[in-house]
């Protein structure tokens, strides 16, 4: 549904995005991660047709139209990171304006106002809204039409728990309807909950592109099992390292990093050595750890 083919963008002689090649399939939810200034916003704006490539191409839709073509713009909707509306207009007036602009049916306005859940503030001027209410209103406007590709730049930054629940429900509805969502976020919990695929960009370059299954596999490899023993057994660490090379002692505990699949064999080795296990905990790898590995020292 969205395809970056060597997309490159430069500003004042500085390369902001460097030869990005990435695909967002139809019906998928793809998250774009990266440090501040890594090129996430530039990439999403390019898919919205707001930025033209200096090299390469960004294509949208089943017809593979250039992102700045009229057909491509009709197939997508974009919510910027910082959304603003005329403060004198009411929330309902804002929605109605964009509904007419999008040529959406009148029922669409009621649907998205219900989604926005402005707590009875639909008739109040936008200037009286909190940041979270403005963000909800922005999401409502962006979803007036059931577009093929929804482009969201940090969509959950200002949302409260109720707003988050509504947002999660919206993305799941789109997934079930076969519609695509491409979003950037610093909220890794949102990514873990929603994304079918995770792409990581650092200093304008793609450093990781993982399916949901690949992410799960990488996180499993980064899990840690902690085995508390009644006492240390001579030679036990060497036995365990045959199964888990990174194992080490920490007091009376054996710390065993590695995939969950290796843990039964490690426990068998411990029991075979005659050690008495008095406690056992396991922690799976976390997305934030994988993310830090990929971005390295980037802020």
Report on the structure:
The structure is a single chain. The protein is an alpha/beta fold. It has two domains: 2-211, Rossmann fold (3-Layer(aba) Sandwich); 223-283, ACT-like. Chain A, domain 2 (Alpha-Beta Plaits). It is built from eleven helices and 14 strands. The chain has helices at 40-47, 70-74, 91-102, 106-116, 131-142, 161-176, 188-194, 212-221, 236-243, 263-272, 287-295; strands spanning 2-11, 14-24, 29-33, 55-60, 65-66, 76-79, 149-153, 180-184, 197-202, 205-211, 224-229, 248-250, 253-257, 277-283. A six-stranded mixed β-sheet has the order 6-7-8-3-9-10, with helices on both faces. Strand 12 and strand 13 form a beta hairpin. Helix 4 runs antiparallel to helix 5 (131-142) and helix 9 runs antiparallel to helix 10. The chain is elongated, with a radius of gyration of 24 Å.
Structure keywords:
299 residues, alpha/beta, Rossmann fold, Alpha-Beta Plaits, 2 domains, four-stranded antiparallel beta sheet, 11 helices, 36% helix, 27% strand, elongated
Please provide a brief summary of the model.
With 299 residues, the chain is α/β, with parallel strands linked by helices. It has helices at residues 40-47, 70-74, 91-102, 106-116, 131-142, 161-176, 188-194, 212-221, 236-243, 263-272, 287-295; strands at 2-11, 14-24, 29-33, 55-60, 65-66, 76-79, 149-153, 180-184, 197-202, 205-211, 224-229, 248-250, 253-257, 277-283. Helix 3 (91-102) crosses helix 4 (106-116), helix 4 packs antiparallel against helix 5 and helix 9 packs antiparallel against helix 10 (263-272).
């Amino acid at each position: 549904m969205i395809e970056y083919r060597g997309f490159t963008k430069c500003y004042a002689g500085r390369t902001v995005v460097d030869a990005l090649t990435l695909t967002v399939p139809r019906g998928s939810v793809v998250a774009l991660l990266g440090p501040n200034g890594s090129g996430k916003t530039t990439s999403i704006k390019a898919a919205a047709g707001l930025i033209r490539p200096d090299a390469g191409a960004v294509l949208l839709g089943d017809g593979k139209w250039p992102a700045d073509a009229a057909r491509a713009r009709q197939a997508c909707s974009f919510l910027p990171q910082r959304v603003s509306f005329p403060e004198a207009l009411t929330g309902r007036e804002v929605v109605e304006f964009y509904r007419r602009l999008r040529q959406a049916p009148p029922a669409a306005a009621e649907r998205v106002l219900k989604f926005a859940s402005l707590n009875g503030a639909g008739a109040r001027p936008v200037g009286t809204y909190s940041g979270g209410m403005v963000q909800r209103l922005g999401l409502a406007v962006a979803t007036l039409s059931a577009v093929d590709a929804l482009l969201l730049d940090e969509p959950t930054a200002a949302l409260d728990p109720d707003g988050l629940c509504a947002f999660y429900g919206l993305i799941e509805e789109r997934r079930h309807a076969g519609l695509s969502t491409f979003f950037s976020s610093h909220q890794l919990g949102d990514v873990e909950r929603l994304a079918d695929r995770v792409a990581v960009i650092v200093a304008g370059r793609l450093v990781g592109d993982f399916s949901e299954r690949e992410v799960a596999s990488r996180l499993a490899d980064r899990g840690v099992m902690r085995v508390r023993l009644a006492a240390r057994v001579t030679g036990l660490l060497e036995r365990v390292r045959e199964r888990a090379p990174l194992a080490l002692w920490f007091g009376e505990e054996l710390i065993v990093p590695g995939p969950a699949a290796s843990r039964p064999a490690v426990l068998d080795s411990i029991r075979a050595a005659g050690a008495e296990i008095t406690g056992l905990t396991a922690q799976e790898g976390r997305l934030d750890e994988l993310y830090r590995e990929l971005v390295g020292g980037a802020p």
